[in-house]
């Protein structure tokens, strides 16, 4: 009977939460702002995944923006609350196999037709891709974003 109690005690100790998984998971999570105003309905219906080592879904983006033009890399970094690397990409760089046509079309329809693509770096292997368009009438940028893991 005592060996059963000892084994049970061993299992209880082994299964205790050490808190290590919570801190390491939060350190790996990329967090940027993507919604602070109403999301266009056309973006909510897009169900597509960005192909990378993580295969994450595209998520809607709708952020207040009073500018008359698309934000620059620095302006976009401030807009999403990111203090590190933000670069622009061409459509061909972002979608060389033309597999994200639905995303690009939905973003263009939600805004004024023309879109910009931003690559937001989060360390060496984690990035977010933002495909956005300007909606001057409502004072915002709208679009889609996806997280990716690239090693």
SSE layout:
Blueprint lengths: L1 H13 L5 H9 L12 H4 L4 E2 L5 E2 L1 E6 L8 H8 L5 E4 L1 H4 L6 H10 L4 E8 L3 E10 L4 E10 L2
Antiparallel strand pairs: 1-2, 3-7, 4-5, 5-6, 6-7
Which structural class fits the helix and strand makeup?
A: alpha+beta
Please state roughly what percent of the residues sit in beta strands, choosing from under 5%, 5-15%, 15-25%, 25-35%, 35-45% or over 45%.
Answer: 25-35%
| Structural shape | elongated
Strand order, biggest sheet? 3-7-6-5-4
Whole-number mean pLDDT: 87
Estimated helix fraction: 25-40%
Largest sheet: 5 strands, antiparallel
State the end-to-end distance: 52 Å
**DSSP helical segment count:** 6
Low-confidence stretches: 21-28
Count of DSSP strands: 7
- Secondary-structure element pattern, one letter each: HHHEEEHEHHEEE
Our Rg estimate from Cα atoms comes to 21 Å
């Amino acid at each position: 009977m005592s060996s059963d109690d000892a084994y049970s005690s061993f299992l209880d100790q082994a299964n205790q939460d050490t808190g290590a998984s919570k801190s390491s998971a939060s350190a790996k999570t990329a967090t940027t702002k993507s919604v602070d105003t109403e999301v266009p309905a056309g973006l909510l219906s897009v169900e597509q995944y960005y192909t990378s080592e993580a295969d994450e879904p595209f998520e809607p983006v709708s952020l207040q923006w009073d500018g008359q033009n698309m934000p620059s890399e620095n302006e976009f970094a401030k807009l999403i609350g990111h203090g590190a690397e933000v670069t622009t990409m061409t459509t061909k760089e972002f979608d060389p196999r033309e597999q994200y046509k639905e995303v690009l079309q939905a973003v263009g329809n939600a805004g004024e037709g023309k879109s910009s693509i931003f690559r937001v770096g989060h360390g060496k292997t984690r990035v977010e891709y933002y495909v956005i368009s300007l909606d001057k009438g409502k004072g915002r940028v709208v679009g889609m974003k996806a997280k990716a893991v690239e090693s």
